[in-house]
Amino acid sequence: MLFAIFVIVTPIAVWLILHFMSRRKSSVETTEPEDLLEVCAVCQNEFMMSELLEKEIGGYGRVYCFCGQCIETLYHESQKKNKTNIETGE
User: Fold this and answer.
1) Cα separation of 25 and 19, whole Å?
2) pTM for the model
């Protein structure tokens, strides 16, 4: 009887659990990525994924999300710094 439990019943139970979990996972993955909320890496505010820009940074493939306002702020800061460096001769 113990042999039947280990050889027949246990593999069937494991298969059923794995089948149920994979089915549940696939239904979760069918949601649109635009519906998901993500945090901006700079300002830490939550935005819809459709509003953010994703960039892979570093050797490990880390993905960061940036909102438009933070990108614009960084751009203007960079332009201001470049302008002052040119004026001072650095």
Assistant:
1) 10
2) 0.55
On whether both 25 and 68 belong to a single domain, the answer is no
CA distance 6 to 79: 69
Q: Do 12 and 52 belong to one domain?
A: no
Q: For 20-46, give one letter per residue: b (16+ CB within 10 A) or e.
A: eeeeeeeeeeeeeeeeeebebbeeeee
Q: What is the pLDDT of residues 63-77, one digit of tens each?
A: 899 999 999 999 999
Range of the domain at 48: 32-90
Separation CA 25–CA 18 (nearest Å): 10
Q: 36 is written with which tokens?
A: 């998901």
